Amino acid sequence: MSLGSLTFRLGGDLEIRRLGFGAMRITGDGIWGEPSDREQAKAVLRRAAELGVNFIDTADSYGPDVSECLIGEALHPYSDDMVIATKGGLLRGGPNIWYSNGRPEHLRISLEKSLRQLKLERIDLYQLHRIDAQVPLEESLGTLSDLRNEGKIRHIGLSEVNNEQLAQAQKVVPIVSVQNRYSIGDHEWESMVDACEAQNIAFIPWFPLAAGKLTAPGGTLDQIAKKYEASVGQIALAWLLKRSPVILPIPGTSKVKHLEENMGAEKIALSDEDFQTLRELQA
Ligand SMILES: NC(=O)c1ccc[n+]([C@@H]2O[C@H](COP(=O)([O-])OP(=O)(O)OC[C@H]3O[C@@H](n4cnc5c(N)ncnc54)[C@H](OP(=O)(O)O)[C@@H]3O)[C@@H](O)[C@H]2O)c1
């Protein structure tokens, strides 16, 4: 069984390793404030880079600002092939409280702040974190398109969108990625995975480990993991890598040990039969 390609050309010009890192979990509880141990958070980021991760997902709202600042502190100056994907368009009212703001003036301010925090002159992938129901999509994306023309954004992506919204967005500006919730047993966005694959757009599944639930031993996943001498989390990530060549899993962790374990998923070549068994699991 072939492992398939472990890399993907994002937007046609950025060669990245498909198994990336989600930097939401390096903040405080509720994705709010500073982490309890900043040095440990930076150690996770540095270890990710050492292990060859060159696709890191973050957002200005993680902390807020904390995740982006830690990435800038830990990894700048970046290696030439490092791609930082950030997002704007969500605001925070407190721990676990999120609300959208897709107004042009807000997106401009957010983008400038992300550039400063990440110590970048251009964001390789800037994702509209949520479509704001109060603002026409054309206005939000029109602003991101302007920022792209100004050289501040290389590529534009979306988050939590359906097929109609993707098509609507593509009338405004080229879209290179969609980030929706997806993992073994979480089938809501199957048709979006297929649509992305058909167009060679990256599909970035958030909650690839179902927020940690898919790392807990038990059931079918556990039996299959034992067969491959792997952890259940590794099997969950290997399944995503096999599901489609456009899938870029971004497991999040605050711990070096978990990061190292997660990266081991790349070495697991699931059989077609095990893949199918896992595909039929219910969330
Ligand atoms: N676009 C959006 O709206 C959106 C929403 C949510 C997330 N995201 C992005 O998606 C990324 C991934 O999502 P996520 O981090 O929320 O969820 P996840 O990757 O599904 O799971 C992360 C959780 O699993 C635990 N974990 C990770 N590896 C583990 C391991 N090997 N063993 C045991 N536990 C492990 C982590 O705890 P420890 O810290 O203890 O390892 C953490 O609590 C985020 O980091 C963020 O970049 C985007």
UniProtKB/TrEMBL annotation:
CDD domains: AKR_AKR13B1 (cd19088)
NADP-dependent oxidoreductase domain segment(s): 18-281
Gene3D superfamilies: NADP-dependent oxidoreductase domain
The keyword Cell inner membrane is assigned to this record: no
Pfam family, one: Aldo_ket_red
InterPro entries registered for this protein in UniProt: AKR, Aldo-Keto_reductase, NAD(P)_OxRdtase_dom_sf, NADP_OxRdtase_dom
Alphabetically ordered keywords of this record: Oxidoreductase
Name of protein: Pyridoxine 4-dehydrogenase
Organism name: Herpetosiphon gulosus
Originating gene: pdxI
